[in-house]
Amino acid sequence: MKGRLLSLDAFRGFTIAAMLLVNNPGDWGHLYGPLAHAAWDGWTFTDTIFPFFVFISGISMTLSLGRRAQLGDSKTALLAQTLRRGLLIIAIGLLLNLIPSFNLGELRIPGVLQRLGLCTILTAPLLLWFGWRSQLLWIVGLLAAYSLIMLGLPVPDANGVWHTGSLRPAEDVGAWLDRLLMEGHLWKQSRTWDPEGLLSTLPAVASQLTGVLVGHWLASQRLPFEKAMWLMVSGLACLWLGQVLDAWLMPINKSLWTPSYVMLMAGWSCLVFGLFYWLLDAM
Q: What's the pTM value of the predicted model, to 2 decimals?
């Protein structure tokens, strides 16, 4: 595969346009349901946008870092370069969170850009030093570890009441960890939990690795039509797996970035991107 992927540029443009739409939906008092996040469990159109960006980042990393590593560039130098880029993304996110008050005492530390930066930093070594089979195992391992922690570790909620396996707002392990490390610097709408908290970065890395795997598939020597077909098939399989995990493990939930949410969004990412790829690069 040579040159830019028109489909990836189109998918990125579609995701940016969707982000602008949900961030500026018109009258917030009469909001069309799909343009709001799900209140807790479940999902809406709006809940697809962040994982689309994470998925796109994974594909881009494979096509850039992976290709440069295969051409002989130093993996350590590539990692250092990616680390600087990830830290810059985090710094921009923190700066935006300071606006307009510039009050460090109430600065929200987590955020969308902060998560993107962390995912980039954590995914880079997995991309550079592991093959696609190992990366698939990392996805399974990250989701399994996250599930065991969330469902098996007893923690106190914001009122000091202890819970084991609770997935209600402010009662889960991730919310407890965020309060422990960042009390007073969380999402101002809740102050006791944050939708971009530290612990749920683990399954978010798994989401980015799904994009990395798609990047490997795109870089293979398969025929473009075959690539598009298997993107569609993989997308449907991930949608099915997401529904299974929703019923048997943890519900679909963006704020917790549950394994069922990871698989469901991987499915939609493959389907939507696969459609762009079929129309723009495979035909």
A: 0.95
